[in-house]
Design brief:
The complex is a heterodimer of chains A (301) and B (363). Chain A has 301 residues and is mainly α. Chain A has a domain of 206 residues. Chain A is built from 11 helices and 2 strands; from the N terminus they run ααααββααααααα. In chain A, a hairpin with a 3-residue loop joins strand 1 and strand 2. The radius of gyration of chain A is 19 Å and the shape is globular. With 363 residues, chain B is mainly α. Chain B has one domain. The two termini of chain B are 32 Å apart. Classes of the chains: A mainly alpha (301), B mainly alpha (363).
Chain lengths: 301, 363
Amino acid sequence: MDVIVLQLFNGISVSSILLLIALGLAITFGLMKVINMAHGELIMIGAYSAYVVQNLFTSYMPSSMFNWYFVAAIPVSFIVAFLMGLLLETTLIRFLYGRPLDSLLATWGIGLMLQQLARTIFGAPNVGVTSPSWLNGGVTIMGDVVLPYKRLFIIALVCLCLFAMYVYIYRSHSGRRMRAVMQNREMAACLGISTRRVDAVTFAIGSGIAGIAGCALTLMGPIGPSIGTYYIVDAFMVVVLGGVGKLVGTVFGAFGIGMSNTLFEYWTTASLGKVLVFLCIVAFLQWRPMGLIAMRSRSLD
Amino acid sequence: MHKRLMSPQRLWLLAGYTAAAVALFCAPLYLSDFRLNLLAKFLAFAIVALGLDLIWGYTGILSLGHGVFFGLGGYAMAMYLKLEASGGRLPDFMDWSGLTALPWFWKPFSSFGFAFAAGILLPALLALVLGYFTFRNRIRGVYFTILTQALVIITVTLFIGQQAYTGGTNGVTGYGKLFGQSLASPETKQTLYWVTVVALIAAYVLCRFLVKSRFGKVLRAIRDGENRVRFIGYNPAVYQMVAFSISAGLAGLAGMLFVLHVGIISPSMMGIVPSIEMVLWVAIGGRGTLVGAALGAILLNSAKSVFSESYPDAWLFFMGALFVIVVVFLPKGAAGLFGQFKWLRKGRTVHEDGDGVSYPAVR
């Protein structure tokens, strides 16, 4: 029983990180039909931002303040990744709208350059980020099952981000504009929505969330230039499984993949578990080729 | 094609092909053994590029999983060589991992014929199965591309994880003889080089035949408008599956040749980065032109071996930048750039085969 609870908790923890990463991907793909392979590198940028903030705190702040660096690191990571995304969108991505495969290749090239840049600046070896002391330890439930605070914190952070995204997409003016562009770009443009600006802002927000994900990942272990590539393919599978254009699909996709990854790896071995998850996804796509939740449209293709 | 068999243009083209073939066959005369071995490796890569061009340039399906097919071919050949080198005993890495008997799926690989056939058919079969479960459901475009990338990840994890059967991270290496001849001797290397040239030419002829046939026309039609093809009454899934598995088979063949030249195959050679590099060869050379794809593979790898020896860091920057430049400025690759020159176009009539990629290839 203890083991099952622990595995479930691990599954939820893995899923929540996947969700945070896939959120931005699903939105940009649904909105602009652009596959952003540099998303993993935006995660890396967020992680390194947290690292830099930590170093700044140790150098310039009294040591009593150190524990609060992480609170500052989250918005900093978001802003840095947001600006990076904005730059990427205005200089490159907007030339690639409607060409998913080409955008995939070009952004992969960007990702390669960003990785190499990080390697030049921070060095190839992984760097450690000391997590604040108030996140050490954990809650003990049911006698001997320990739920670490770090993972609980990440889950809470993801819930917060999800809630903020929900409010933004479904309850704000610019979110409504975004949904309009997603559903019918031409019509939205005719009604006076600046689709250019919607695209840019949406892409930047997706990038910013990736930055937060990177910041959260620093709690899980050391970070390196290729930290993003480890998660990016799983995040894309979330998008494929969940379908694009609806928040709810991404949530289901993330939990489907995160949970089954953890459980299969527990039942079999790590390598065999991945194969089983892949087979499950292919089998699932036999039933729903467009993912779990797809936007209905009468247009062909 | 059916108008005049021997127009001046065709003669020039024929002369060009002959010159290229002669230059390739005579390479041992003017290249050192080291360079020859490198060239042989690049020619093997060119075979992958041809296959990839068939599926991407002509059918509009981007596969990021060709590293797997390449690797499967390589492993098939390496397994034969390893068994040959172990001579009846258990291969060394199995010994280290505590296996006592040869696994059943290793047994048939002691025959060269089986290993050779498996090196081509296994990747082709895998591609056929994957294609069956995706194309039939109209999973295409980026969805398919992401699935192929996931295929790479799980295959690499599987091969690393099952160390007792696959040699783990180190891969399969430590063999030196083929048919009793040392793989390291210059004579064998020369023969293997010629074998590679013949294989490349055969692959080129096969691809060219396919592309010029009715089959190729349907492939291009699928690229430019899959639904229209379906409405006309074709079943695009069948064509996509066949093209994909031929492409995978070619990658497997290249993998086998690669192992003979290099003497090692490991999971790192079938990972995400090598797979996407293969795509870059085709993109640089020019998708939708067979010669362009093959030349792209050879040129880019030559550039890589020159650059990365002296500036390994700058090479990655360069490669990243190449991706961006090619996609944004040169969607048809170097061959497209070349084709823009006036003097080449002169005399060409309206009849263009439409080999270049036109957008929107994918919606």
